Amino acid sequence: MRAVPLNRYFAFFLIAGGGLAADLTTKRWCFGWLGMPGGRTHWILNQVFGFQTSLNEGALFGMGQGMVWLFALLSIAAAVGICWWLFVTGAARQWLLTVALAGIMAGVLGNLYDRLGLGLPGVKWTFENHWHKIGDPIFAVRDWILVMIGPFHWPNFNIADSLLVCGALLLVWHAFFQKDINDGKTTT
């Protein structure tokens, strides 16, 4: 098996690190500007696109509310799996996989940061529900991008979520259209 070129390590860590920095910086900025959820909404395009803070104790589209620790463990497993796939099995020899998995890694780490309670250290819940009591520390993903599709409110999201989706789309593209690195044939 051929070694992974050094430039793939550089590209992976640059994309993953840059994506993580962009995610954490924008979350901090938006929550600092608009405050905690329930505050104001800033519209860029009235009733279509804007900024509004929200907290998600679940995963995609809010599914699995209250399962923060399960999603944190899955995030850690995904990060280890990505590094294994890229650098141990040699998948990083393919540029598309390197870029796709770097984006996914940035998204995984950005949301993991929040799930571990690092995004809002010392901040406590001010209301009670099925998943937490008043005064419990906040272990939730900070979302801030608001999109309306007609009257439908798309679930708020963040840069990490966008990186996860873009990386996943690149993986799908790779699965259907990328040439196999070993034989030069299109994989199907």
What does this molecule look like?
The protein is of the alpha+beta class and 188 residues long. Helix content is 48%, strand content 14%. The protein has one domain. The protein is built from four helices and four strands. A four-stranded antiparallel beta sheet has the order 1-2-3-4. A hairpin with a 3-residue loop joins strand 1 and strand 2. The longest helix has 29 residues. The relative contact order is 0.18.
Classify the beta-strand content into a percent band: 5-15%
Class inferred from helices and paired strands: alpha+beta
The outline comes out as: globular
Number of strands: 4
The rounded distance between the terminal residues' Cα atoms is 23 Å
Query: What's the overall average pLDDT, rounded?
Result: 92
Number of helices: 4
Any low-confidence stretches, pLDDT <50, length ≥5?
Answer: 183-188
Radius of gyration: 19 Å
Number of domains: 1
Largest sheet: 4 strands, antiparallel
Trace the largest sheet across and list its strands. 1-2-3-4
The share of residues in helices is 40-55%
Give the oligomeric state of the chains in this entry, treating copies of one chain as homo and distinct chains as hetero. single chain
Q: Strand-and-helix sequence, N→C?
A: HEEHHEEH
